Amino acid sequence: MPHELILHHAYTACTRVTLTALEAVGEPYVERLIDFRAGDSRKPEYLAISPGGKVPCLLVDGAPLVENAAILRWLHSAYPDAGLFPPAASAWEEAQQLSALAWVSSGWHPSVRAVKVPFMWTTGDPAPVRERGNELFSALLDQLDAELSERRWWFGETWSIVDTYLWWAYVNSEFGGFDLSPWQNVARHRGDNEALPQLQRALAREQAAQDALEASKP
User: Fold this and answer.
1) Which CATH number do you get for residue 128?
2) CA torsion sign, 194 to 97 to 94 to 29?
3) Tens digit of pLDDT for each residue in 119-133?
4) CA 58, 98, 206, 10 torsion: positive or negative?
5) N- to C-terminal Cα distance for the chain?
6) pLDDT by residue (tens digit) across 134-178?
7) Are residues 58 and 141 in the same domain?
8) CATH number of the domain encompassing residue 14
9) Whether residue 141 is found in the same domain as residue 159
């Protein structure tokens, strides 16, 4: 039986990854844009389904699921033919996939926030936070660039949603003025991601939602 899927997302947020996953799945879904500037994330009706006021929040047949890593793994379990992760021959391989996903969500994600929006990590001068964020992010890019010198995608020759999560992280660093040009394998990985039909559809859907929101304002 098909699931009713409703995704709450925000413009340029990590929900771009969730949108891409849903586009890869190919099942019908509804998306609802959360406008943080308008306070949508703090409204009682949203806090009722996402108590932390965070995105993404995926309603599955009316039941909420939050945290990107959990949503992405559930989508993979529910729709294994979508190719969000490569087939796993053992519990060990499944654990390695989860390890990579956790690495991006718990390592890359906070670091890019320090680069892009350092004021969220301090009540004082954000400059030292951004400086440290740049150092941490550079180290992550060094690691990724070295890994990508040996293979096209994170898990080898086949795309996975981990690749688009990585793409989202390093592309978002540019909003904080970060220069990605020294990492040539990352640049190639970026181009490969941005050529993906599922990512292109996700970005188009996100932009259409944002355009509709802006058009509705007085």
Assistant:
1) 1.20.1050.10
2) negative
3) 988 999 999 999 999
4) positive
5) 42
6) 999 999 999 999 999 999 999 999 999 999 999 999 999 999 999
7) no
8) 3.40.30.10
9) yes
